[in-house]
Amino acid sequence: MRRLKSVAVVGVGLIGGSFALALRKAGAVSRIVGVDRDRQALERAAALGVIDTAADSASEAASRADLVLVAVPVRAIGPVLHDVALGLGPDAVVTDAGSTKADIVATAAQELRAGFARFVPGHPIAGREASGVDAAVPDLFRGARVVLTPEAATAPEATALVRACWEACGARVTEMPAAAHDRIFASVSHLPHLLAFALVSEIVSRPDAAELLGFAAGGFRDFTRIAASSPEMWRDIALANREALLEEIDRYGARVAVFRELVARGDGPGLQRLMTEARNARRAWPGGRRSQADE
Amino acid sequence: MRRLKSVAVVGVGLIGGSFALALRKAGAVSRIVGVDRDRQALERAAALGVIDTAADSASEAASRADLVLVAVPVRAIGPVLHDVALGLGPDAVVTDAGSTKADIVATAAQELRAGFARFVPGHPIAGREASGVDAAVPDLFRGARVVLTPEAATAPEATALVRACWEACGARVTEMPAAAHDRIFASVSHLPHLLAFALVSEIVSRPDAAELLGFAAGGFRDFTRIAASSPEMWRDIALANREALLEEIDRYGARVAVFRELVARGDGPGLQRLMTEARNARRAWPGGRRSQADE
Hints:
The structure is a homodimer.
Chain A: E1 4-10, H1 14-25, E2 29-35, H2 39-47, E3 53-54, H3 58-63, E4 67-70, H4 77-87, E5 93-96, H5 102-112, E6 119-120, E7 122-125, E8 145-148, H6 156-168, E9 172-175, H7 178-204, H8 209-215, H9 218-223, H10 231-240, H11 242-265, H12 268-284
Parallel strand pairs in A: 1-2, 1-4, 2-3, 4-5, 5-6, 8-9
Antiparallel strand pairs in A: 7-8
Helix pairs in contact in A: 4-5, 7-11
């Protein structure tokens, strides 16, 4: 890829910070401008060498950038894109790192207007237990998957630039429609999060919650680990991807009803058949053995 | 506790083997007799020094034992107790390590008859990823919880002996009624297992399962880890604890319906309230930080 003169990173947390570090390590960029409404995070990013300069606003950062990465919580992407649009140069490309895509595409169309053709919706599938710029590392995206969901209106060269940047970070890039992305992640990410929150929620609603938790062991621990995630983030994802998530909740409910019926009927062979299929699939899944806590 | 002359362990796997090693390490027993329908496992147990002698049958082992631990899969406990009863001396105490209790109490009453007063139903809450006697370690139960569910008919001195043995293994022993045990474990163990199996089962039933799993990440991995467990074991537990499990499935379904309704209505504050309660409870739970994979 051509070396970029300037990349703006709006939101210098784990994702934005790691993107900056990875691009710099790959020699893909000369100058990184950071923006964050959290002034301390921004100063920390500069002190750590994650960014070269701090800008006061997304529009200011965008005005000097070849590429703008918006790596803020889903709910903040709209206002940020609004601000980015105010400063965006005619050739600059914009991308994001949000966990949902169709809603962000709609927001981007509204906020970026003419600039929408140079907006490439993106979702890096990576994370760590820790968050914030102090947790940022240049290798966060090495081997990780990144989904891009360009629209018909998206300029191919914009998509190519964003793809090249993520590949420079070591990521494997896949393109698909926003709706397909949202269905996939409703299934393998948003639904499990909601289910884990619901299980802990059900237990803490009981008078004997402390006793129940006192006997909970390793299976419960792993099943509910994601219920320790940010309520704000998952609230926003659930609402942003509402239609796909509702469909997944209903599909899942139907499958649980099948299991319930097998238990109620005492159908051992039927239970064993479904459990064995699931066990085999889970054991064959290569992701089952990774030790990294990525989301 | 008084030093026991002879302990019989029926089922020399992870649990039975670790119990034997722990009792021996504590100096609590002179001689350990092992029984296993898997001849290789039995020879391995002898070779590893986990047991002193191998017996050909549970009745033979029981005939010379002060204490018999039945550590076999739930479905095999009935036949084993039947066999134990044939050889059991008048003062010998019997206990088990099954994950469900009310059904085992009913089976034990039927199989042990007069010996039922010396049967102490038990459930050690411990495990490792690995299974079998090669995975047995003397410290498996150190700090682990063990639930005993003596009946009104259970001789107090029998319960005291089994408690003393588990305490000698380093475990924390709690007594409660079998029905209370089964409700608790339906909630924090049996339900999560069924839910994890159901999620993977739902995904593998789809034509695009491979694509979905290709994008699944760390949250999915932990949520579904227990779906890699033994289908036979969890089929048996689900059926053995059917009533309590059905009740838990329904309670959980009702809570998921609440979350579903909040998502459908776009009720952000409502979602955030429930997710925050769950997040706080999950973060405050001391078991959340243990690294041992115990079930």
